[in-house]
Structure formats: structure tokens, C-alpha cells
Design goal:
The structure holds 2 protein chains of 2 kinds. Chain A has helices at residues 2-24, 29-34, 40-49, 56-68, 82-117, 122-136, 139-153, 165-195, 198-205, 210-232, 234-247, 253-262, 266-294. By secondary structure, chain A is mainly α. In chain A, helix 1 (2-24) runs antiparallel to helix 13 (266-294), helix 5 packs antiparallel against helix 6 and helix 7 crosses helix 11 (234-247). Classes of the chains: A mainly alpha, B mainly alpha.
Chain lengths: 301, 298
């Protein structure tokens, strides 16, 4: 457990190192904020004000100590604290994240169980086909097709924005289908692994009804890897959310980072990347710990 | 001596078996053929294209294609009157070049670091594993967007960013496989008779991890083609007159109401390429391990 936490801290420090250097990749932040033709004196003053004239290591230390205190810097564009800007957009992203995760699980888990139980039947091949197609179509392209069909041709659903439930439908389908292949594959794999175990044969042998074998013996044991994968999907979820939010004008964190790029508001970009990566490692750590609690068979070392 | 010979025969027939299993699979046949056709688009010389893919002619803007009986512009034209068929073939070059180069760099980096970590272990392993953990914690699209925003979009920066997105997964696989292969008796034997480590790695370990590596590399290329198209769609790709399929979708996005084909044509091409590559990867995976289809990170 201590090793895990140590590893977590090491990885997080690495993440901050990378996000710290991200902003330095631009060359001179002062030139971006003040413009190409700013006087050298103004650049010097800017650098002094933001500590950019200090040695890199000192700058990093002050960056990380600010981050620890929840200070991610100030937006160049809005002049507001970045944490505040991000916090305001979290509910929208969470809303879409939960509904798509639910969509992906409701579609992927039953199909995955069925595909494994009816292995090598048309049903198995069908779910394999669905996976390949869902995986192959770029999610922004799928979004365009759905907007075209349901938004433009049929006029059933809004093509963007947030508000009522109907605004949530298309983004959920797009992001949910982006996540579904992994859920389905994992479920199928997990169930297949368990079907071959001796205790399943024993259960069948002693006459446990098939339904009970499937739900009490197979599914309950398969649920651990499935839940883990659902948790590990968090990084993919963010990747998909960035695209989906941008297309559907969804006011979440994903769209914030794209807006930060187009507005050349780099501290916001840096802040969002840091927050997203931090969420990913925290969730992974939580799953790791939860894992050992739920299933004592899995304890590292 | 005789048993060694038997071993060689067994291995070569195993390889043949795998190749055979790959070709017997109709999925991998279709996947291979479509991939090869699409990959061949890049060698079509510019003067074979029906029209100049960059020439603007607003008189013929947004013309529909063969579905509306138009055989002058078979796939229609975009909002600037550029022929979509020519642009699709022209765009294939950079789409595939970027995807392929990024995958190649990521693979070389992944093999190098993964083997170093797996074979030597100790502090090198600790550092490489640390780097892998860090890399895998970033939502890659977010990181890629950030890096490109800071350094600017160009062919080189796209290849670089995409390679960063993908090396860690490959390194993790190679590291694990190397550790497993290292514990085989034949490696001990080779070490014992004084064969240099570098030779052991190249002659004994690399061939053993080749098949799973080939599968993951195919998947990675599919993933990077998707990622590149997403970045280009967001306007972070190569700039005009260069174009990739993702960029073409981005161009067409504003006109889906009156010229849907400008986005649909490149979209179908990307989907075809990605699905075909996944079929190839699945075929390799199935040939190695027939019991499971793939479980991998998206």
C-alpha cells in the first residue's frame, strides 16, 4: 500500500514536471501576452512579475507549491483564477461523462456477456462487428452524421448546447459508442476466462440452475475486471469528451481546452491538462486500493 | 544436436501455422486487401489525379457527385470548388505518411526502452516504468492538443506528438514480454556460454516478441490515424495547401447542411482505413492466440 502511494506521488510529480514545461514550449510567454512588437523593457517587467527571470528549478518549485495550494495561475484572457474557470465547467462534463459511461455499460456489458456465452455464434460475430465499426468510425464523424440525421433532416434533436435532456442525447450516443468497444471486449474476455474455471463446472455438475450459474457464479466474478476497465476508461473518456464537447458546443472542460488553444490562453490549457491527468491517477489509485479490498487474491507483492 | 534440429523444425512449422491461420481468416483477408489498396493511394502521382487538388474554382463549388448523376466530379466538389476525389487521394499521402511515421518512431522507441527496462532491470527499469506510468496518465488528446498549441502544427510536430501518444503502450508490452522471455532456459544458456547481451536480445528475445508486437503496432497505427484526424478536425493539423482526411472533414463540417459529401467522403475513408487496420491486427492476434479477441486500450 505504501509502495503504491509512493508510486502515485512519483507519477504525479512527473505529471507536474511535464505540465510545467508545456508552457515553456512556447518559447517566450511574454511575447504571446504582450505581442510580437512589445518593447524589451515591457518583456523584462512581465518576466519579473511572473518570476520568469528566475532559474527554471526555482520556477518549478514555485509552480508546484502554487498547485498544491490550489493556485493554477490566472487566465491570460479572462484574468480569473484558472481553478475557478475549470470548476465552473465540471458539472457539464460530469453530466456527459456519467450518461455516456452508463450508455456504454448498458450496451457493452449485456452484449459482452451474451457474446461470451454464445461464443462462435452469429450473436458473437454481430457484437464483434459492432465493436469494429464503433472503433473505426472517428467519433467526430459519427457526431456529424447524427447531427445531419437527427438535427438537420428529421429535426428531432438539437444540434448543440446544454440544457434539457434532449440536448444530452446525441453527445451521450457519440461518447458512449466511443467507450463501448472496450467495455464489450473486456466483459466478453472476463466472462470467457471464468466460464472455463473448475468451480463453474462444479456448479453445473451439482445441478445449479443455468440462470443461477450465469448470474451468481459467472457474472459476479466477472464484475471485478469489468469495473476496473470502466474505471481505467477515464482517460479515454476525457479524450472523447474533448472532441464531443467541441462538436456539440457543450460547455465543459473539454471545450475549455480547445477554446484555450484557439484563444492562445495557454495557462488555461496547462491547467486543464494538469487537472485531467491528476483525476486519472487519483482514480487509478482508488481503483487499485479498492481492488485489494474487494478481492484479497489480488495483492501486489 | 538432433533435438535442437527438432526444435527448429517445430518453430518454423509454428510460424507457418500462424501465417496459415492468418490467411484462413476472412476478416484478415478483407482487412489486408483494403489496407493495401488504401496504402497504395500514396504512390499515385499528382499528374494522374483528375484535377489539381488545390485549385479553387467557385463556379463549381459544392457540386454533388455521382449520386446526383455528376460524372465530371465523381465524388463532388467542396466549398471552394475543389474536386473531392483528387483531394481524397492527395490527402491520403499525408494521412498515411503521418500515421505511419509516428507509429514507426513510437515502435522503435517502445522496443528500445521496453527491452532496456525488461532485460537490464534495476534502476533503468524503475525510470522507464516511471515514464510509462506518467505517459499513460495523460489523456493523450489533451496532451497532444496542448503540445501542438504551444509548438504549432506542422507535419513534424504532428508526427512527434502522435509518437509520444503511442510509445508507452508499446514499451509496456515489450517490457513485459522481455521479462518473460528472459527467464527462458535458452537465454540462461546463451548467457552461460558467453554470448553478448546485445546479441541475445537481437537473436533470441526480439524474434520471440515479434508476433504480439506486430499486432499492437497495427492497432497503434489505426489509433494514431484516428488521433491525427481528430487533431486536424480541431484545426490543429497541417496547414493548407497540405491536407489530411481529418482536415477535410474539418473543412466540410461547416457545410453539412448544404454539401454533406464534403465531410462524408473523407469520413468514410478514415473509417475504412481504421477498420481495415483493426481487422489486420485482429487477424494477427487470432493467429497467435485463437481464444480471445483483443482487449486493448483505446
Amino acid at each position: 500500500m505504501i509502495r503504491r502511494c509512493l508510486r502515485f506521488i512519483m507519477v504525479w510529480v512527473g505529471i507536474t514536471l511535464i505540465t510545467f514545461f508545456l508552457l515553456r514550449l512556447t518559447g517566450s510567454p511574454a511575447r504571446i501576452v504582450l505581442g510580437e512588437f512589445a518593447s524589451d523593457a515591457a518583456v523584462l517587467e512581465f518576466n519579473q512579475k511572473y518570476g520568469l527571470d528566475q532559474p527554471l528549478f526555482t520556477q518549478y518549485l514555485s509552480y508546484i507549491s502554487n498547485v498544491m495550494r490550489g493556485d493554477l495561475g490566472t487566465s491570460w484572457r479572462f484574468g480569473e483564477p484558472i481553478l475557478k474557470i475549470i470548476a465552473a465547467r465540471i458539472p457539464a462534463t460530469l453530466e456527459m461523462a456519467f450518461s455516456s459511461l452508463a450508455f456504454s455499460a448498458l450496451l457493452g456489458i449485456p452484449l459482452g456477456v451474451l457474446a461470451a456465452l454464445k461464443r462462435e455464434t452469429p450473436l458473437d460475430y454481430l457484437s464483434r462487428g459492432i465493436v469494429l465499426i464503433a472503433q473505426g468510425i472517428p467519433n467526430f464523424f459519427l457526431a456529424i452524421l447524427l447531427i445531419l440525421l437527427f438535427g438537420v433532416a428529421l429535426r428531432w434533436l438539437p444540434t448543440g448546447g446544454r440544457g434539457e435532456i434532449k440536448h444530452l442525447i446525441l453527445p451521450t450516443i457519440v461518447l458512449g459508442l466511443y467507450l463501448m468497444p472496450l467495455t464489450l471486449r473486456t466483459t466478453r474476455g472476463a466472462v470467457l476466462d471464468i466460464i472455463e474455471q473448475n468451480y463453474i463446472r462444479t456448479a453445473r455438475g451439482k445441478g445449479v440452475p443455468e440462470n443461477s450459474v450465469i448470474w451468481r457464479h459467472i457474472f459476479r466474478n466477472a464484475i471485478i475486471p469489468i469495473v476496473t476497465i470502466l474505471g481505467l476508461q477515464i482517460a479515454s473518456l476525457f479524450n472523447g469528451a474533448i472532441i464531443t464537447e467541441t462538436i456539440f458546443s457543450w460547455p465543459g472542460i473539454g471545450r475549455l481546452i480547445v477554446a484555450g488553444v484557439t484563444g492562445r490562453d495557454f495557462p488555461v490549457v496547462q491547467g486543464v491538462v494538469l487537472i485531467l491527468a491528476t483525476v486519472v491517477v487519483v482514480i487509478n489509485l482508488a481503483i487499485d486500493i479498492l481492488y485489494t479490498v474487494i478481492d484479497p487474491r489480488i495483492r501486489l507483492e | 544436436m538432433k533435438s535442437l534440429l527438432d526444435e527448429n523444425v517445430r518453430i518454423s512449422s509454428l510460424k507457418k501455422k500462424m501465417l496459415h491461420a492468418y490467411w484462413r481468416n476472412s476478416g484478415s483477408q478483407v482487412g489486408s486487401i483494403i489496407s493495401i489498396i488504401l496504402l497504395f493511394l500514396i504512390v499515385i502521382p499528382s499528374h494522374w489525379l483528375p484535377y489539381d487538388p488545390t485549385i479553387v474554382d467557385l463556379h463549381v463549388a459544392k457540386e454533388p457527385g455521382f449520386w446526383a448523376g455528376n460524372f465530371t466530379y465523381v465524388l463532388g466538389t467542396d466549398f471552394l470548388g475543389r474536386d473531392l476525389l483528387s483531394r481524397a487521394i492527395f490527402g491520403a499521402r499525408l494521412t498515411i505518411l503521418i500515421g505511419f511515421s509516428a507509429t514507426a518512431i513510437a515502435t522503435i522507441l517502445g522496443i528500445f526502452l521496453g527491452m532496456l527496462a525488461g532485460f537490464i532491470g534495476k534502476w533503468i527499469d524503475a525510470i522507464v516504468s516511471w515514464l510509462i506510468d506518467i505517459q499513460l496518465s495523460f489523456p493523450v488528446i489533451a496532451l497532444a492538443i496542448a503540445i501542438i498549441a504551444m509548438v504549432g502544427g506542422s507535419v513534424i510536430s504532428l508526427i512527434f506528438v502522435l509518437a509520444i501518444m503511442s510509445w508507452a503502450g508499446i514499451a509496456r508490452l515489450v517490457r513485459g514480454q522481455t521479462i518473460a522471455a528472459k527467464n527462458e532456459i535458452y537465454v540462461d544458456a546463451a548467457l552461460a556460454i558467453g554470448i553478448p547481451r546485445i546479441r541475445i536480445i537481437i537473436r533470441h528475445i526480439l524474434p520471440n516478441i515479434m508476433s504480439p508486437l506486430l499486432a499492437i503496432v497495427t492497432y497503434e497505427m489505426a489509433r494514431l490515424v484516428l488521433a491525427e484526424s481528430a487533431l486536424s478536425f480541431l484545426g490543429l493539423g497541417v496547414s493548407a495547401p497540405k491536407v489530411t482526411w481529418g482536415g477535410m472533414i474539418g473543412d466540410g463540417r461547416g457545410f453539412i447542411y448544404d454539401a454533406w459529401w464534403t465531410a462524408v467522403v473523407p469520413g468514410i475513408l478514415i473509417a475504412l482505413l481504421v477498420i481495415a487496420l483493426n481487422f489486420v491486427g485482429d487477424g494477427i492476434r487470432d493467429a497467435i492466440d485463437p481464444t480471445s479477441w483483443r482487449v486493448s486500450k483505446k
